[in-house]
Specification:
mainly alpha
Length: about 290
C-alpha cells in the first residue's frame, strides 16, 4: 500500500512519508524469514541458510531499486543499480515503486501456497483437528505480551549494556550495516562524477558486488562444512560446536572489508582505471556479507 503511495506521490513530503512507512512495514518481513529457515534447517547448517538469506538481500540491493534525492532546487533521482538504472531511464522514477509491486504480487502468490513451518503451530493444528489438548510445553519466547516484551525487548537491551561481547558485537555489526547501506547509495555518484559513467554503466558496475556476494556465500558455507564438523567432534555438546566458531567467516571478512576500504579510497580517481574501485567494491561486499552471516 505504501509503495503505491510512493509511486503516486506528488510532493517530496508525501514521498518521504510513504517511503518511511514502506520500510517500516517491510522490516519485519526481512527478519522473520529467519524463523522459517530455522524451522527447516538443522542448527549445524546455520551459516549455510544465513548465507542464502544474506545473498538474497544483497543481490536484491544490487539489482533492485535505490532512490536518492540529490542536491539542487529540482528533485533529481538516480535509480540503481542494475535493473533500476535501465528502468528509470526509460520509464521514470515512479517505476521504482511499480516494479517492486510486480515482484510483491508474485511473492504473495508463492507464499500463499506455502505450508506452515513452525513446529508448535503444526502440533496445535493437529490437536485441534483431532479434538484433543496439545499438551505442549510453554514456548521459550513467552506466552503473554509481558513475557514476550521482556524476552525480546527488555532482556536484549540489558545485555547490550552489561555484556561486553554483546556490546562490541552489536557496535561492529551496526557499523557494518551503516557502511554497506551508504555504500550502495554512494557508488553510482562516485563513478558518474569521477569516470563520467552513465546511469546504466553505474548500474552495471554492481555486477562486481553481486560477484562478491556469491563468493561470500560460497566461502562462508565452505568454512562451515570444513571447520565446523571438526569443532563438533572436539566439543562436549551433542552435535553442536561452541557458538564462537560461528565467527570464523567474520574473521576473514573483517580483513577483506578493511582492505577494500583503503583500496577504493586510494584508487577512485581519474588517474586510475575505473576497474580498480569496481573490483574493490566486489571485495568490500565479499567481506561485509561474511561478517553479517
Amino acid at each position: 500500500m505504501f509503495l503505491i503511495g510512493t509511486g503516486a506521490s506528488q510532493s517530496f513530503a508525501a514521498l518521504a512519508v510513504c517511503r518511511f512507512f514502506a520500510g517500516f512495514a517491510g522490516g519485519p518481513c526481512l527478519v522473520l524469514i529467519e524463523g522459517t529457515f530455522a524451522d527447516l534447517w538443522s542448527p549445524a547448517y546455520t551459516v549455510t541458510y544465513y548465507s542464502f538469506l544474506t545473498l538474497a538481500s544483497y543481490i536484491g540491493a544490487a539489482c533492485g531499486m535505490n532512490l536518492l534525492p540529490l542536491s539542487g532546487s529540482a528533485l533529481t533521482f538516480f535509480i540503481g543499480p542494475l535493473v533500476g538504472g535501465f528502468v528509470v531511464t526509460d520509464k521514470g522514477w515512479r517505476w521504482t515503486s511499480w516494479v517492486p509491486l510486480m515482484l510483491i504480487a508474485v511473492v504473495y502468490g508463492f507464499g500463499g501456497m506455502m505450508p506452515e513451518t513452525y513446529p508448535r503451530e503444526i502440533l496445535r493444528r493437529r490437536a485441534r483437528k483431532a479434538g484433543v489438548p496439545h499438551n505442549l510445553p510453554k514456548a521459550q519466547s513467552g506466552v503473554t505480551i509481558g513475557e514476550m516484551a521482556h524476552l525480546t525487548i527488555v532482556q536484549p537491551v540489558v545485555m547490550l549494556f552489561v555484556d561486553p561481547i554483546t556490546f562490541f558485537s552489536t557496535l561492529y555489526v551496526a557499523f557494518i550495516f551503516g557502511t554497506v547501506f551508504q555504500w550502495f547509495i554512494a557508488v553510482p555518484p562516485v563513478l558518474m562524477a569521477t569516470y563520467d559513467f552513465t546511469l546504466q554503466q553505474a548500474g552495471l558496475a554492481f555486477i562486481a558486488a553481486i560477484g562478491g556476494a556469491v563468493l561470500a556465500a560460497a566461502s562462508s558455507i565452505l568454512i562451515e562444512r570444513i571447520a565446523y564438523p571438526r569443532k563438533v567432534k572436539k566439543s562436549g555438546h551433542k552435535g553442536i560446536a561452541d557458538i564462537e566458531y560461528r565467527f570464523l567467516p567474520a574473521i576473514l571478512g573483517s580483513i577483506f572489508i578493511t582492505a577494500a576500504l583503503f583500496w577504493i579510497g586510494w584508487t577512485a580517481k581519474p588517474s586510475v582505471s575505473w576497474a580498480s574501485p569496481v573490483l574493490g567494491t566486489g571485495l568490500f561486499v565479499w567481506g561485509n556479507m561474511m561478517i553479517l552471516v
